[in-house]
Amino acid sequence: MTLLGLLEREPSHGYDLKRDYDAFFSRGKPLPFGQVYATLSRLARDGKIVIGEVEPGEGPERKRYVITERGATEVESWLTEPVAAEPNLQTVLFTKVVLALMLGRPAEDYLDRQRAAHLVRMKELTDIKRSGTLVDAMLADHGLFHLEADLHWIDTTVARLDALAKAVRK
């Protein structure tokens, strides 16, 4: 949907789409060229984009992709639909705590290690926020707020471990 949205903004070559995606959305996880072109192929197959101008290049011809009305309608629908409220009630953090308790293992040790990992990541995100662009800062804030919520949950869970252990060992 992101590539389709970028095409609604302006017709583009695959290389330009990858560059824009990586600049605004990837943050540490660049989009592989193969994925860009595979996605463009599926979008064309599904009638959401068409190939516009074809220009000669040093290698293969450069295709400029153009969004269709069907594609633009899908972007509009996607943008107006709320994102599913997170998190789900099934999380890896919770699963590990419950299994540790069920197996008689030290869940508090796991939670302490998780807290330490969260604090390291929060420092990384804070550094990104201070030295990056506005986009970097906003993405870092999103991550920081989620990590803060996780830390609150970890502290609450540690306080309830004895009661939780009794509940899961029945």
From TrEMBL:
It comes from the Bacteria. Residues 3-76 form the Transcription regulator PadR N-terminal domain. InterPro entries: Tscrpt_reg_PadR_N, WH-like_DNA-bd_sf, WH_DNA-bd_sf. It holds the Pfam family PadR. PANTHER family: NEGATIVE TRANSCRIPTION REGULATOR PADR, TRANSCRIPTIONAL REGULATOR YQJI. This is Transcriptional regulator, PadR family. It comes from Micromonospora chersina.
